[in-house]
Amino acid sequence: MSRPRFHLAFPVRDLEEARAFYGGLLGCAEGRSSPEWVDFDFHGHQIVAHLAPAPETVATNPVDGENVPVRHFGVILDLPAWRDLAGRLEAAGVDFIIPPQIRFQGQPGEQATLFFLDPSGNALEFKAFADDAMVFAR
Q: The VOC domain covers which part of the protein (predicted)?
């Protein structure tokens, strides 16, 4: 059974910088574009970087001992792909908001997670579950 795909539009300060980050570093294929926006294939989902030069402030909430950015997006990968991405980001010298780690260890919802900002200050989270049944565990 195929899952629905999500669409997310978000602000960036510079489209070429967004292309280098999402297309280059994260490996997202580029789709349609204009002088004001560009589509990316984000693990089968459509994300759209819209030119909006004014940055926003990043509010956080505490989650399992970490300050998690309230406004963020990301994707749930399988564990090998998450480890691969974490290694690629570490090798690239990405400055993590929350470094690669296991959250909620030994509890329902245990997950591998990491957070970082794109060049425009948008927070991204990539996570993985050893057991997919834990995605919505309480």
A: 4-129
Query: Which residue range is the domain that position 84 belongs to?
Result: 60-134
- Identify whether residues 33 and 95 lie together within a single domain: no
Q: For 28-83, what is each residue's pLDDT tens digit?
A: 999 999 999 999 999 999 999 999 877 666 788 889 899 998 889 999 999 999 99
pTM for the whole thing?
A: 0.86
12 and 42 share one domain: yes
Residues 69 and 129 in one domain: yes
Contacts made by residues 45-48, CB under 8 angstroms, sequence distance 24+: 45/5, 45/6, 45/7, 45/8, 45/75, 46/5, 46/6, 46/7, 46/8, 47/7, 47/8, 47/9, 47/10, 47/22, 47/73, 48/7, 48/8, 48/9, 48/10
- Looking from the CA of 9 toward its CB, the CA atoms found within 13 Å total 7
**Which residue do the tokens 């994260």 mark?**
26
- The residue whose two tokens read 């963020």 is 72
Chain-centroid distance of CA 64 in Å reads 19
Residue 75, in any domain of the structure: yes
CB-based contact 11:122 (threshold 8 Å)? yes
